[in-house]
Specification:
Elements: E1 4-9, E2 29-31, E3 43-46, E4 57-69, E5 72-82, H1 93-96, E6 106-111, E7 117-119, E8 123-129, E9 132-141, E10 154-161, E11 167-169, E12 177-182, E13 185-188, E14 195-202, E15 211-218, E16 225-230, E17 236-239, E18 244-253, E19 266-274
Parallel strand pairs: 1-16, 13-19
Antiparallel strand pairs: 1-2, 3-17, 4-5, 5-8, 6-7, 6-9, 9-10, 10-11, 12-14, 14-17, 15-16, 15-18, 18-19
Length: 278
């Protein structure tokens, strides 16, 4: 029988890496299993406060579509970035003890809730099939991949490529969405100790009406699983997940604890934790 640990985190109860004796720490209930020498328990830890960027903003300055083939179009997005410097190292990157981009601050470009592309220049092009509908989320990111969550630092662009390869801007979505950001890709050596868990909430807030459920697992070590419910929009670290092929599923829940209605309310991503490079 698999062992699963269930945590519920609220705005006033967050598990820190060093809080083993903290009486305010959330309690874990172990369901099933037998007594044995366990691996270190998978844990969620708070991320120390990150630098603020007052007035940082991101917007779409232009979008252009052109034929890329008989049934597809090349779409080029150009962004305007204000009060934020791309390619600069975020000042506290050395203190975070997590994966950090040596290329510096960037934009996370996320199309249809698929893995993001990091943009160090404010432009990107994608090739899309004709007669398809898409949701683009883009937001400013610190050098260690933590999103800037202040108003104006993100955009949602809803559009369609018609049957002739022309781009048509569609109405902005109005329902709450959750956009997956991290973890992503490969983590090697010391970067496996603190794995950033971060996402973007659009058209909503985490409160009494909405929460986010994170189902975290290591497929190579089935006992290493954790289910967490967040009621506050903050970044966290995943710790003690071990090495191997891992997975996180994020689901936006309504006040009844059911998956919220609308587009982009759940996303799953696989990533790898490695003791050392191959």
């Amino acid at each position: 029988m698999k062992t699963r640990t269930l945590f519920t985190l609220t705005a006033g109860a967050i598990l820190f890496a060093s809080c083993g004796n903290n009486p305010d720490s959330p309690k874990a209930s172990i369901l099933g299993g037998t007594k044995s020498t366990p691996l270190p328990t998978v844990a969620i830890a708070a991320v120390s406060p990150s630098p603020d960027f007052p007035g940082a903003s991101l917007s779409v300055s232009s979008v252009k579509a052109e034929a890329a083939g008989k049934d597809s179009a090349k779409v080029t997005f150009n962004f305007a970035v204000k009060n934020y410097e791309l390619k600069m190292q975020t000042s506290d990157n050395g203190n975070k003890m997590c994966n950090n981009s040596d290329k510096g601050q960037h934009i996370h470009f996320i199309l249809d809730n698929t893995p993001y592309k990091a943009l160090y220049e404010p432009t990107n092009d994608v090739t899309l099939a004709n007669n398809t509908e898409h949701y683009l989320m883009a937001f400013l990111s610190r050098s260690y991949h933590e999103s800037i969550k202040t108003k104006g630092a993100a955009i949602m662009y809803h559009f369609k490529i018609d049957e002739k390869g022309n781009l048509k801007k569609l109405e902005d979505p109005t329902t709450p969405m959750i956009i997956y950001s991290r973890p992503k890709g490969d983590y090697i050596g010391k970067d496996t100790a603190n794995v950033l868990l971060d996402f973007y909430i659009w058209n909503g807030t985490l409160d009494s009406n909405y929460s986010v459920q994170a189902d975290i697992s290591n497929e190579d070590k089935p006992s290493q699983q954790l289910m967490v419910t967040f009621t506050k929009w903050e970044p966290h670290f995943i710790q003690n997940l071990g090495t191997g092929k891992c997975k996180v599923k994020l689901t936006l829940l309504d006040k009844e604890g059911k998956q919220a209605d609308g587009h982009l309310t759940s996303a799953t991503r696989e990533f790898n934790l490695k003791a050392q490079a191959n």
